[in-house]
Design brief:
This protein is α/β, with parallel strands linked by helices and about 240 residues long. The chain has six helices and six strands, in the order ααβββαβαβαβα. The chain is globular.
Length: about 240
Amino acid sequence: MSRDIEDSSENVLSDMSAARSEEDEAPASEPEEDEDAVWGAASAGERETGDESEDAPEPEHEEDDGTGIAVAPSLEHAAGELEIPDGYAVLEGDSDGSRRAVGIVVGRFNGAVTSQLLERALAELDVAGVRREAITVMVVPGAFELPLAATALAKTRRFACIVALGCVIRGDTPHFDYVAGEAASGLQLAALETGVPVSFGVLTLDRVEQADARIDKGAEAVRTALEMADVFAHLRAAASR
């Protein structure tokens, strides 16, 4: 019985070896071509050498950002105005500052940029009717110190609103992220803790060349602060009725 098993095992092993030898000697069969892949390759070739499809979207117009490198235009704001349905009570402020006292905190660091932000802010305050003697400018070392200064001004209760101006430029280290983030969250916290509107007029730039297109942020911060101060006045008036 054991001899029969051994014989059969040897036969099986020899048959498997012979089958492997036949497979190795047989010529490799040509892989079947995938018809879809062939047509896809042909289509790709046609796209490279032929005319472009009429339905293909045209590339966006690229502009030079002043560094000699073409960049695609970016849209930082959505077009259109806010629409509120009729029949609702609406509280909305105006940027009229004829009866307002305004505090400005401005960072000295990156002074070439912050000086222009301050200039635009003061010009906008003049347009809004804020008297020069009703404006206080508080200078701090940089953007990181803006929240503390804004909080201190707001706690005096002498100002209807605070305008914060500064500039942070990205460098080779994470310093930018810490300063910009803390400035933004700190200024928001100053407003929340004191109830006095604090507007964010801090430029956060990758390169100093980007400042020129954004210098009007100083005037925008003034309009934002005055509007918030006005709407808060309307809110207090409505609550007292």
